[in-house]
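Check this.
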Amino acid sequence: MNAPINVLIAESDPKKLKKYASLSLWKELGFSVIKTVSNTRDALCAIAENSCSLLITVSRPPEVDARAILKARGDAAAIVIVPRKEGESVGRYFALGACDVIAEPPSRTRLRQALMKAHRIVSRGTSSDEYRRAAEKALASLNVTSESFALKLRDFIAKSEGETATTGSAAEFFSFNRDYFGKLFKQETGMTFNSFYNGFRIEYAKELLSAGGLRVREISEVLGFSSVDHFTALFRRHTGVTPSKYRTDAPK
């Protein structure tokens, strides 16, 4: 059994710090909160000890300066939780190496997605093998007329791990408005973006089911489905079997 990944949490609000530290998700996903701090100075001292592989920082300047913490993170993965008013400026955290940025208060599902992404990064130093294989299969199935479009789409899928992509988010990545991107995607691939992305999610689900370790409900959450019933119905539509049946029949 692998040792848990050590976590540092930086949060200036004592009640919220206690709440974050006591979440059951840590143990469920293979983490251990070994240090909590309430200010940037203590966070930087803890990082210098090099004992934590994941940093959770709640951006509350001046008490907790997420940017200063990210700059000092070294090889540690980092998730930043931000007030919703910061929604338009989260790019600066990604630029400093955050693996995910979440609006406050984070839902359990959203936090789980971010933590699973961080776990894969810490464990492998890169995106997950399952995600990469699913992306390659989905992209290989497309008959794209423009090589530059295909490369841009590959980049978008790669950067979207741990998120639920939409036509809108893809359009933003391509620097187009939503309607134009939708038409362009159909012109380039012969299908809608939603059809392509759902196909990719099913490929990813198949990889996760074959790998084991996650329950069907958890896979549904990772993939961003609104309910496990919706996930099961879409999976059956694409594969002819339920996720549970697919897992049972998958080669060991």
